[in-house]
Amino acid sequence: MSGQARALIDSMPDQIATAEPSLSFDEAFTLHHRAVFRTARAVVRDPALAEDVTQEVFLRLYRNLDSTPGDELLRPWLLRVALNVARNTIRGASRSVARDTQYSKEAIGDGWAAPVEDYERRLEIEEARRALDKIKEPMRSCLLLKQQGLSYREIATTLSIKETNVGSLVARGRKQFARVYGKIGGSR
Amino acid sequence: MRECIDEGILQSYFDGELSGEKTESVASHLAVCINCARAARELESESLLLSKALEPEFAGPVPTERLRHRLDAAIAGLHVVRPVASDESRVHSWLQSIADLFTLSPQRAFGYAGLAAVIVFAAIFAIVQWRHVPVNNGSGLAGVPKPVSPPPASTQKESLATVTPSPKDKAQSVSIFAPKQPKRTIPGHRVVPNELAARPQVKLLPGERSYLKQIASLDTTIKSESRRPMRPGLQAEYERNLALVDRAIAATRSAAKSNPNDPDAAEFMFAAYQSKVDLLNQVADARLSNRQH
Contact at 8 Å (CB) between B26 and B1? Predict the structure, then answer.
């Protein structure tokens, strides 16, 4: 085997990795619908609205399947669309009270723990949300996305920020959250 | 690394986002720097707190099946629309759009029903209007007396009794008794038998005709001089006198007509006629003498 041929074979894995065909629509849904739904629910705080948002996100993926990024950047793309659609959904309407009420009902109906056992859990969720509300963007989104296991690169792509800034944003957001959450009483 | 670690770098270190070289550098610094080691401990505790706080938010169930069903239904809806938009020919899509008009959804059915009701009402209204117009025309052609045509009886009565001050009206009141009177009917207004039956009532009383002829000739003479107008004062006096005489003629004539056997009534009427003849003679003479001068 010549040196050129060996060099070609050595370089193939990289080429295969970059030229890897995009996921099919079904594969994309199976892999990412949870992240999309949870991100949407964390923003709109209403399971029914989160379902609407998730459906819209994957419909956009379906319509633009040929032009969407490949596997590596697909999750950031989906979460970016999810954040935009979710913000548009709640924009302009002051529905926090209705949302919380509806969320509690839907959460129970969706198979959360029994109401009596879940009271503490719902209280924790509400306290965490109130603490998150005190944190400004993009730090809040950084925390939400990092909590779902996204890499700094994915977070940077999702939020259209520099990757080198993600660490600082996460650190500042984390400190603010701890301070606010402690005042609210979440660290009991 | 001699300097203390930036909080972003420290966060990246704990999140495993640093390169191998930087990771070693941070680790070696943390081993010797008390402040950075304390910051690292805070970071770990806060990160643990954050994870615990947000864990319920992300631990909630995800309705995978329901999402999948909704999405499949939505995609099926997209497929219904797509072939028409992309593949089919224009004619086919046009026919399809027409065919869609006949697929009755409840809203569309209500819309069609409303449209049909409007068309029916419009048609009824148009028919009613169309029928009204010929009826009106037919009644006009059938010869029903129109309000503009004066009733014959009143015409006669006015012609006998009305005395107006203007010369034009005077001539009219005089010419009523002339044989040309039937020509005064309105053009297109046919003389019906009732009118003919009423006409003999205009029959002249005995001895009246000679006065009327005389008056008519005098009137013609005065009119022939109409190119030279009278003085306004004289004209007014002439008209006033003529009106008085006409009124006297009308009154005495009706009296003579109602009492044909009373010679006094006829005498009064002739006296009135004579007064008018005298007046007209006087005026005619005056105008003739003026012309000679």
Answer: yes
